[in-house]
Q: What sequence folds into this?
């Protein structure tokens, strides 16, 4: 493959889509040597083909708010790649959602899902609907209107959405109810369902648990361990919550969480059951502010308008949204002695931040590897739905742990550099690419 030419084409074909270009460029740059060493990929134009989503559905969502006013939002589903299984990926409801956001997330999802070892293709969807401050009735009406259109394009064997930012158990419930009402089928068309109606144990915790298991692999690789480590988390949603739970259990000290309003620093550690439960309580208020945490717990301080990356920590785990950790933040973390950065949000670090971290030999894990535990457990939910049975929490957790270990092993296999440094970005991209690429070759010129 001609890297320069492909990057130029990528930029020309996707004008005004900087997120998609950022995600795709990173993959192109890290797989180029591998692709060039294996001519079959060029023979079948696999790289060019994988850069193009199989389908993008864009639709109008019209609903009525509590004041009787008509609201119009945009809905999306990007069906990126079906080579290894049905499209699979979350739905994001957030005011920043654009076609660019959806394309970058669906692209990342294809490689991530490939890494999980489970048969899932890549997709992503969502809307620019902003859940902040909306009543339960408004959220329900929106979810019903959204699913009325989305249901035309999904199904348990074709495309299985789940949650993401702004979409949790409540929203999955409202959308599942509407799917059932329209189709008359109780099937595994969504994951992240409630336990009583087809959901899986450990799914709510899975992204945070999985990222922590991945971190354990990174630490073990350097003969280090998690106990006593100071950790900065950003965000206070489902992902940060799951990570806080597992980090506390394994003896790390989480010192920060954050929101759009600023960050919380707590030198006593955000490690007690009460504090972690309060994170979830704050999320359920849907006000999207973290400041009240400091009013509730005297050991916690609120720093308005700042990000948690200025705290002195050993490990940073961005758990909020893309590009939340910049080059400046990376330099601050390095100056403060951080040795590990684990992306738990999708593409949580800017490209410049990743370069700075890698140059300083900080162990850096990309989201598509470290946060794959969420979708992996969605895959386990699909298995349980197909078998019409449910596994115990211990069974799911053990499978999740095994999957995260295998992702870590694969990153090391394809990402180890001559000096011993593990380039997890390169490892994840090559390992994720191989399975998708080989499946596409086997299936002929279809997509
Ligand atoms: O980014 C992700 O991997 C998710 N939001 C979870 C997707 C899923 O299908 O469980």
A:
């Amino acid at each position: 493959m001609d890297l320069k030419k492909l990057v130029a084409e990528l930029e020309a074909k996707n004008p005004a889509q900087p997120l998609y270009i950022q995600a795709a460029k990173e993959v192109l740059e890290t797989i180029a040597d591998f692709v060039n060493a294996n001519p079959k990929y060029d023979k079948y134009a696999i790289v060019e083909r994988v850069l193009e989503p199989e389908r993008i559905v864009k639709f109008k969502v019209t609903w009525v708010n509590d004041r009787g006013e008509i609201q119009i939002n945009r809905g999306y589903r990007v069906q990126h790649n079906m080579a290894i299984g049905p499209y699979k990926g979350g739905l994001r409801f957030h005011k920043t959602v654009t076609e660019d956001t959806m394309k970058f997330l669906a692209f990342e999802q294809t490689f991530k899902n490939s890494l999980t070892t489970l048969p899932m293709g890549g997709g992503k969807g969502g809307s620019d609907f902003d859940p902040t401050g909306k009543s339960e009735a408004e959220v329900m009406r929106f979810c019903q209107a959204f699913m009325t259109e989305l249901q035309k394009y999904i199904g348990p064997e074709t495309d299985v959405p789940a949650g993401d930012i702004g979409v949790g158990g409540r929203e999955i419930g409202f959308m599942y109810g509407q799917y059932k009402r329209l189709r008359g089928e109780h099937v595994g068309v969504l994951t992240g369902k409630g336990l009583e109606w087809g959901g899986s144990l450990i799914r709510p915790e899975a992204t945070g648990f999985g990222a922590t298991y991945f971190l354990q692999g990174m630490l073990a690789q350097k003969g280090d361990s998690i106990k006593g480590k100071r950790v900065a988390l950003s965000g206070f949603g489902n992902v940060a919550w799951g990570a806080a739970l597992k980090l506390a259990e394994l003896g790390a000290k989480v010192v920060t969480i954050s929101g759009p309003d600023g960050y919380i620093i707590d030198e006593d550690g955000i490690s007690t059951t009460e504090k972690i439960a309060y994170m979830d309580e704050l999320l359920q208020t849907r006000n999207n502010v973290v400041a009240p945490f400091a009013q509730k717990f005297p050991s916690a301080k609120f720093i308005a308008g700042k990000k948690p990356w200025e705290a002195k920590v050993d490990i940073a785990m961005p758990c909020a949204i893309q590009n939340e950790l910049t080059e400046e933040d990376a330099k601050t973390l390095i100056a403060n002695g951080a040795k590990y950065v684990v992306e738990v949000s999708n593409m949580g670090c800017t490209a410049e931040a990743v370069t700075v971290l890698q140059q300083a030999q900080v162990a850096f894990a990309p989201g598509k590897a470290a946060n794959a535990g969420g979708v992996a457990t969605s895959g386990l939910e699909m298995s349980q739905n197909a078998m019409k049975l449910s596994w115990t929490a211990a069974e799911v957790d053990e499978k999740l742990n095994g999957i995260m270990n295998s992702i870590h092993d694969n990153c090391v296999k394809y990402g180890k550099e001559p000096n011993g440094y593990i380039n997890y970005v390169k490892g994840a991209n090559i390992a994720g690419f191989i399975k998708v690429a080989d499946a596409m070759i086997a299936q002929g010129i279809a997509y």
In short: The chain has a mean pLDDT of 98. The two ends are 19 Å apart (CA to CA).
